[in-house]
């Protein structure tokens, strides 16, 4: 049986070949063609990168579990996976305040909602892959056909067998550092290229999706709308103001300690304060953060 509408074929690695079709329906037909695939002992699938997009959010309290985030986070696109980053300290894994979110979409939403809090979504740049066999980049030792290299001197042996531990030479740039060092200029260049390529691919693919609706139909409807969107914090202003006026009329003087107690006891005001801190932490423009910008952001969240 002939495979129709193929526009390109390229090798991905030793075990995978990418087949590019002219239209999405012919690609789907190929995946469902079990007779052809069984005959040639092959498996076909659509790469997750074509239908999913991963972003990150920051400053998420570490005591919130992945399960709770998955249940309570909402977005204009369906959320299919949640993963909190962690770091190893001694023998223990410490959860961080950065969380990755995978969406069933080709593009990222601007933000996601957690109760009253809105978190900005940033693009996720995965770590640069480096082979621990040849120490080149963008592939793993599992599929490497190169010779074993030493990360210390660059010789053709394991680092444990190195007889020149003081003659440090990077296999990639010949510099006086280990092949796995972050100081390697070649590694730095590869990381920058990776970031630029991902950003360019995102823009290019977005244009393709938006201009070829026949070939790329719209994704399923959103998982849910932002929760608690009808909750208003306007009452926090009137409540605080009324309390302050009453106190002034009674005792003529409002002590700062009493005012602080009133603010702390008002949940709506506290929620607005936290929301303001999250927004200021997530902003990436060059606008300086000062008392005026903080006040403006707080007033916006209180109204």
UniProtKB/TrEMBL annotation:
This is Nucleic-acid-binding protein from mobile element jockey. It comes from Euphydryas editha. The lineage of its organism: Eukaryota, Metazoa, Ecdysozoa, Arthropoda, Hexapoda.
């Amino acid at each position: 049986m002939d495979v129709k509408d193929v526009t390109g074929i390229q090798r991905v690695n030793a075990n995978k070949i990418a087949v590019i079709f002219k239209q999405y329906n012919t690609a789907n037909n190929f995946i469902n063609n079990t007779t052809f695939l069984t005959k040639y002992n092959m498996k076909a699938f659509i790469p997750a990168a074509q239908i999913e997009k991963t972003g990150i959010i920051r400053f998420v309290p570490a005591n919130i579990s992945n399960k709770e985030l998955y249940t309570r986070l909402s977005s204009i696109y369906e959320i299919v996976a949640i993963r909190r980053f962690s770091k190893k300290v001694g023998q223990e894994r410490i959860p961080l305040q950065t969380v990755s979110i995978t969406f069933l979409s080709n593009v990222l939403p601007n933000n996601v909602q957690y109760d009253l809090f809105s978190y900005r979504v940033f693009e996720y740049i995965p770590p640069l892959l480096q082979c621990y066999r040849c120490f080149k980049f963008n592939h793993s030792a599992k599929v490497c056909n190169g010779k074993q290299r030493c990360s210390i001197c660059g010789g053709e042996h394991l680092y444990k067998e190195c007889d020149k531990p003081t003659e440090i030479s990077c296999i990639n740039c010949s510099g006086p550092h280990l092949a796995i060092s972050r100081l390697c200029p070649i590694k730095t260049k590869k990381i920058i290229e990776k970031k630029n390529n991902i950003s360019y691919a995102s823009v290019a693919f977005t244009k393709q999706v938006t201009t070829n609706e026949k070939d790329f139909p719209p994704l399923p409807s959103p998982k849910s709308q932002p929760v608690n969107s009808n909750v208003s914090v306007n009452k926090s202003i009137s409540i605080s103001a009324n309390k302050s006026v009453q106190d002034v009329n009674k005792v003529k003087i409002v002590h700062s300690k009493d005012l602080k107690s009133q603010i702390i006891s008002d949940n709506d005001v506290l929620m607005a304060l936290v929301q303001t801190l999250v927004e200021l932490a997530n902003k990436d423009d060059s606008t300086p953060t000062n008392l005026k910008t903080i006040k403006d952001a707080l007033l916006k969240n209180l109204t």
